[in-house]
Amino acid sequence: MRVGLSYNVKPSDPPAHLPVDAFEEYDSEATVGHICDALASLGHEVIRLGAGPAIIEALQHSRPDIVFNIAEGEGGRCREAHVPALLELLGIPYVGSDPLTLCVTLDKPVAKRLAASAGFPTPNFRTFRSAAEFADAGLSYPVIVKPAFEGSSKGVRLASRAATPEKAREMVRFVTGTYRQDALVEEFVAGPEVTVGILGNDPPRVAGVMEIAPRTVRNEEFVYSLEVKRDWEKLVEYRCPPPFPPETLSGIERCATGIYRLLGCRDFSRIDFRLDADGVPQFIECNPLPGLSPGYGDLPIMADRMGMPYLSLISEILSHALSRQEVSLR
Q1: What is the C-alpha radius of gyration for the chain, rounded to an integer number of angstroms?
Q2: pTM surpassing 0.70?
Q3: 211, 219, 214: which is closest to 194 by C-alpha?
Q4: Collapsing DSSP states into helix, strand and coil, what is residue 194?
Q5: Is 138 in the same domain as 247?
Q6: Contacts by residues 35-43 (CB-CB < 8 Å, ≥ 24 positions apart)
Q7: Kind plus residue range of the DSSP H or E element containing 49
Q8: How far apart are CA 291 and CA 297, in angstroms?
Q9: For residue range 196-224, what is the model confidence (pLDDT) as tens digits?
Q10: The domain spanning residue 167 has which CATH number?
Q11: Separation between Cα atoms, residue 173 and residue 89, nearest integer Å
């Protein structure tokens, strides 16, 4: 098949006036190369499409059979939906979730409200447009403050965990001023951080459950921040599978697959939790565009540790998308 690859890459010389993590969600050229190599090894002709405005002409010229979409988009809280919406307009099949799911999951407060409405536990939270608007509002401290619609720990620092209203207000000022969007303030869950990789559609299956265990601080103080992710080999240990009781693991898996279905995820996604004092998984966020860098992205790491090589992971993701197309054409 002719498989197009839509993606955004980190600029080699980002503008100095932007935050240091402005392009944190974007992929490296190396990651794009790994995916291209994997698709080519599976026997496909690979067409690099990029994801900016030029992708329109590239799609019309190359007309791929299917697009393997990992594009994060450019600007706004609907940015991850740009490429899938264009592909739907042009009638080109693609890998991954549809525009609605990508919009809903990028906006963390919206995703949390939907999860809570279906009975999935999620920490209490509020959103604020400015530090002047911030009010204590009955939240229990500590809290964590983050941008309302970013991924890859953009805007999340070690200082994002706030033990007092005064510190929370300071971090709201940082988020709203730096990232020009609402700040999400949610109660901090002190237990282990867990991420779940899910593949497939009918039914989806758990590819792996992984604990992100801090090496230098207690879970009660741990924030999976930008600083930690950039030095993860020293600061965290990835435990896959984690050393939890069987009932805890099964509870995490039930919540993850339930939220995957609820939010309309397709083909592949990653869902994050923190465990509370009773071992209950509290939903943090859903990422339907998880990183696919081998040896660095959480989903490839989980797959590898569960016995699935990188080539098999890419093959399975593509196969699930193709199976959906076959069903829709019947």
Answers
A1: 19
A2: yes
A3: 211
A4: strand
A5: no
A6: 35/5, 35/7, 35/68, 35/70, 35/292, 35/314, 36/5, 38/310, 38/311, 38/314, 38/315, 39/3, 39/5, 39/68, 39/314, 39/318, 41/311, 42/311, 42/314, 42/315, 42/318
A7: strand 45-50
A8: 5
A9: 999 999 999 999 999 999 999 999 999 99
A10: 3.30.1490.20
A11: 39
- Whether residues 300 and 252 share a domain: the answer is yes
Residues making up the chain, counted from first to last? 330
Distance, in Å, from the CA atom of 215 to the CA atom of 228, rounded to the nearest integer, reads 10
Q: Which two tokens stand for residue 310?
A: 């990188």
- 315 lies in the same domain as 224: yes
The 10s digit of each residue's pLDDT in 263-294 is 999 999 999 999 999 999 999 999 999 999 99
Domain termination residue (choose one: 166, 187, 208): 187
Distance CA 44, CA 62 (A): 14
Q: For residues 34, 39, 43 and 49, what is the CA-based torsion angle, rounded to 10 degrees? A: -110
Nearest to 20 by CA among 230, 287, 197: 230
CA–CA separation, 97 and 81 (whole Å):
9
Query: What is the spatial distance between Cα 220 and Cα 217, in angstroms, rounded to a whole number?
Result: 8
Closest-CA residue to 285 (of 111, 34, 48): 111
**What is the rounded distance in angstroms from the CA atom of residue 203 to the CA atom of residue 217?**
38
Q: How many structural domains comprise the chain? A: 3
- Which amino acid is present at 303? A
Q: Do 215 and 291 lie in a common domain? A: yes
Q: How far from 314 is each of 5, 97, 293, 311, CA to CA, in Å?
A: 12, 15, 11, 5
Residue range of the domain that includes 89: 2-95
Amino acid at 245: P
How confident is the model over 96-108, as a mean pLDDT? Answer: 98
Identify whether residues 180 and 197 lie together within a single domain: no
- Whose CA is closest to 187, among 115, 282, 260? 282
Of 108, 102, 230, 111, residue with least CA distance to 181: 108
Which of left, alpha, beta for 274 (phi over 0: left; psi -120 to 50: alpha)? beta
